[in-house]
Amino acid sequence: MRDAAKPTQQHQKQQHQEQQHQEQQHPAKPLFPLVFIGPMAAGKTRIGRLVARTLDVPFVDTDARIVADHGAIKEIFEQHGEEHFRALEREVVAQALTEKAVVSLGGGAVLDPDTQADLARCSVVYLSVSAQAVRRRLGGGKRPLLRGGIADWKRIYNQRRPTYEALASIRFDTSHRPLDAIADAVVTWTTTRT
Ligand SMILES: Nc1ncnc2c1ncn2[C@@H]1O[C@H](COP(=O)(O)OP(=O)(O)O)[C@@H](O)[C@H]1O
Ligand SMILES: O=C(O)C1=C[C@@H](OP(=O)(O)O)[C@@H](O)[C@H](O)C1
Ligand SMILES: [Mg+2]
C-alpha cells in the first residue's frame, strides 16, 4: 500500500521541480554577482566554478581567498577561534560581492547581518542537499565545525536553513544529480529568469 505521507520517488521528483519554480523569487535583480549559498558540501565551490566557466566570468571562492591570505581554515579556527574566522570572512565576502563574478560563499557566511543585507541585492542560488547524500561527501576532515561528523552537519544545517531560504532567489537540490547537470540547470535558469 502506498503511504501518502511517504511519496514515491517519481512524486518527490515532480514535487521538487514544482518547488524549484515556486521558490524563484526576486527575478528582476542584476545577474552578477551570482552567489552560491548553502550547507557544507552542498557543492557550492564545485558547481560555482563550472557555472562561472560556462558564463565566462571570473570565479571567486571566498574560502579560497581566505586561505590564500591567512592559511588553512582549520588552523585559523584552532589558533584564533570561529569569531576571528568570521571577521576575516566578512572582509573577503564584502569585497567579493562587489565583483562581476560568480561567488561561492562558505556555508556560514550568511550568518553575518551585513552579508545578509548585501545578499538582498544579489542573485542568490541556494544549493540544498540531504543528509543521506552528503554523508559520502564529508571526507578529508578539512571542515573544523564537523568534528562530530554528520550529526554536526545536520544540527548546523537545521539552524541555518531558514536563513538560506530567506536569502535565496532560487534553490537547486544537489542530492541526486551529478555536478555538471546541476551546473547546467543553474545556467539555464540564468538565461530564462525574467
Ligand atoms: N552533486 C554532487 N554529486 C556528487 N558529489 C558532489 C556533488 N556536489 C558536490 N559533491 C562533492 O562534495 C564535495 C564537496 O563539494 P564542494 O563543492 O566543496 O561543496 P561546498 O563548497 O558546498 O562545501 C566534493 O568532493 C564534491 O566533489
Ligand atoms: O558552514 C560553515 O560554517 C563553514 C563552511 C566551510 O565552507 P563550505 O561550505 O564551502 O564547506 C568553511 O567556510 C568553514 O569550514 C566554515
Ligand atoms: Mg566551498
Automatic annotation (TrEMBL):
Residues 15-26 have a biased composition (Basic and acidic residues). Pfam families: SKI (PF01202). Its cofactor is Mg(2+). Keywords: Amino-acid biosynthesis, Aromatic amino acid biosynthesis, ATP-binding, Cytoplasm, Kinase, Magnesium, Metal-binding, Nucleotide-binding, Transferase. SUPFAM superfamilies: P-loop containing nucleoside triphosphate hydrolases. Residues 1-26 are annotated as: Disordered. GO terms for cellular component: cytosol. ATP binds at residues 41-46, 143, 177. The keyword Metal-binding applies. Substrate binds at residues 63, 86, 107, 160. Its EC number is 2.7.1.71. It catalyses: shikimate + ATP = 3-phosphoshikimate + ADP + H(+). GO terms for molecular function: ATP binding; magnesium ion binding; shikimate kinase activity. Its main location: cytoplasm. CDD domains: SK (cd00464). Coiled coil: none annotated. One of its GO terms (biological process) is aromatic amino acid family biosynthetic process. It is found in: Cytoplasm. It is an enzyme of class 2 (transferase). Belongs to the shikimate kinase family. HAMAP family: Shikimate_kinase. Monomer. Catalyzes the specific phosphorylation of the 3-hydroxyl group of shikimic acid using ATP as a cosubstrate. This is Shikimate kinase. It comes from Cryobacterium shii.
